[in-house]
Amino acid sequence: MVVNSEGYQALIEYLVESLGLFEQKDGPTCDDTIEDLVSDRVATSLMAICEQNPHIDAELRFVIMQEADAVVADLQEVLSAVWQRPATTAQRDFLIEFVDLIKNLFDSLLR
């Protein structure tokens, strides 16, 4: 579905190209770790997808949940060195936008 799409692969490449942002430890930090931010944002996006698409059946919802788990696993792999570190404000903003872009991939496939 999404994780095997060209759009998703391009987003992962974009994340890898942006890893310099995650090497920064200075600057204002959030209370949340990178893991918390990613997990919460993906879960929020998953709920929004289901609410916005009440017509999808239980089987497709399950596939979407599996895909969301795969997204979190991929992000954990790419960001493993900083996964437990508190996020800086810039990192938080990047991750929010990044997960929103992934949600857009789901939205486009469900239309």
From TrEMBL:
It comes from the Bacteria. It holds the Pfam family DUF3802. This is DUF3802 family protein.
